[in-house]
Write a structure and sequence with these properties.
9-stranded mixed sheet, alpha/beta, 9 strands, Rossmann fold, 18% strand, globular
Amino acid sequence: MNYKWITLIAMLQCMVILEAQEAMLCQGAYWTEDEANLKMKEFANLWDDLESWEERSKMIRDGIAKGMQLARMDQFSAVPGVIIHTRREMDGYTVENIAIESFPGFWVTGNLYIPSAPRAQNPAILCPHGHATDARFRTYVQLRAATLARMGAIVVAYDMVGYGESNQVSHRMPAALLLQTWNSKRVLDYLLSRSDVDPERIGMTGESGGGTQTFMLTAIDQRIRVSVPVVQVSAHFFGGCVCESGMPVHRSEKHQTNNVEIAALAAPRPLMLISNGADWTRNTPAIEFPYIQRVYALYDAEHRVENVHLPAEKHDYGYSKRVAAYNFLGYHLKLNVNAVPYEEGFMEDFVTVLERDELRVFNEQHPIPPGALEGDDAVLEFLGF
């Protein structure tokens, strides 16, 4: 056969595959709230005991892995390379700048927060962030990470792809969902490679798009033992960005699911949903949380799942949301919550908020290593897309 015809046939096959995947996407407000309510009742009729739920949960997990093409990344599962520098001693914690090699030539940029007097074995917490231009440099991210570190956790706050210092690719690249999930997994791999991290006490918490990263990784990786997705778990809203719903992880020819069921895959591990009255989580107490409670009841683990609903608040990871997470993570990860000043609420004023340039990993003194991939096309080609 002529080479040109072979190339044309391959291109047409690729177009058919892409069109089929596009048809399977569930994006943004895919359903109305009324439709989602009925869908949750429909989903509830698909299982009635632990055996039938676990059959469904396996199908959902498989759908996530296949939909984001996670198998592409299996070849990069060795202990990741790490760059750490610029240690600063703070009040009860230290801060360092860290880069973790997600796969050859691609770096996850972040900051490492460690208790000032760490133990031989410490809990660890992954802290992804939502869609904010200043990314992990934002004040509330620093407050959260530093407070959890002072309580005794080793914390990594890290950038979304295309945000903050993660500028090797754009955020809206086609494989953003795969990259972000894999990046989170590599942060977890790094933490578990440390001899001072207790593998039985690993937590994760993030808001909005960081909430998606939290419940997505928790769903497919049992090493996350405690999960706190904030202002994101919704029955009708599937995420408004390609990094959340740009690959067919919610639907296939064999199944349909949503983020409520994906969050429920945390069961029976401790899970807290934090919701508010001004976004797509406004129905959590009535719709999303009862469904997840029912899943937890199958494991006799109703006491491990909680919902903090703040009807007077908006879409953020503000103070009242953080303090709820502090108590939940503190209890289930056995943190020392008394290490943080408390006077009618946790006091975060001991935290030194650093400037962006102070927290950057790569600069003139510490340039990105040679061979770094640059641009969406270079990364996609390296991964075989």
